[in-house]
Amino acid sequence: xxxxxxxxxxxxxxxxxxxxxVKLALPICRPHDPNDVPLADNDTFVIATRKIAHRTxxxxxxNLRVYVSSGGxxxxxxxxxxxxLNRSSICVSDMVYESFFAKTPxxxxxxxxxxEFILAHECTHLAKNHPLSMASFVPPSMLSSVMVxxxxxxxxxxxxxxxxxxxxxLSGMGLSWRMEYEADHGAAALGASYRSGGVDMxxxxxxxxxxxxxxxxxRLITDxxxxxxxxxxxxxxxxxxxxxxxxQLESTTACAFCSTF
Length: 261
Description:
Largest sheet: 4 strands, mixed
Keywords: Hydrolase, Metal-binding, Metalloprotease, Protease, Zinc
Organism: Aphanomyces euteiches
Shape: globular
Radius of gyration: 21 Å
Oligomer: single chain
Strand order of the largest sheet: 1-2-4-3
Order of helices and strands: HEHEEEHHHHHH
Number of helices: 8
Structural class: alpha+beta
Cofactor: Zn(2+)
C-alpha cells in the first residue's frame, strides 16, 4: 500500500512539475502580451533598441519585438537567445518611451543615458538567456525541495515544510539576483554613458523610495531607500555600488563584485 502511494505521489509530482515547466516556457516561445502596444519596425525607439541588442550579443536582433505598456514597470524582457528559437521581446513603460523622445530634460522624465541603460539591461537578460534559465530552474528546484522535505518529514512535518519552502525561495532569489547583476554588468560594459545612466536611474528610484518612506512610514523600505518586498532584484544600494565600482575599473571584464554572486 505504501509503495502504491509512493508511486502515485511521484506521478503526481512529475505531472505537476511538467505542467509548471510548460506554463513557464510558453511565454518564452510566444513572447507577447495582448495588453501591450507593439511598436512598428521603423519606429526610432525600436531601431535604437535593436542596435543596443546587437551590441549585447543578442542573436538576430532584427527579430526583436518592442512593446509599450501603459503604467507598467520600467522594463521587462522575455524570450530565448537560440538559433532555432530567436523570438524575443522587450516591454517598456510609456514613461521610458516618452523620455526617449523628450527634447527638454525635466525631473519626471528619464535622461537618454538612463533609457539606454534600461534597454541594455533588458537586452542583456535576453542575450544571456535569463528567461530560459529561470524557467528551467523551477522544476528541478521544486523536486529537490520535495525530496528534502520527505527526508525530514519523519522528524517534523511542519519543519520539513518550512525547510522545503525556504530552500525553494532562497535558491530562486539567489538565481534572480545573480541574473540582475549580470544584466547590470552587461549594460555597463557598453560604455561610460551606460554606467552613469544606470547609477542615475537607480539613484532616482532610491530617492523616490526615501520620499515614500517619509510620507508613509513603513518597514518595507529601509532608511537607505531599499524596497525589501522586491525579492526579485538586489538592493538598490548594492546595484549602485556595483556600477560605481565598474566606473572605477579600467575594464568591465573582471569584476570582483560579480564573482561573489
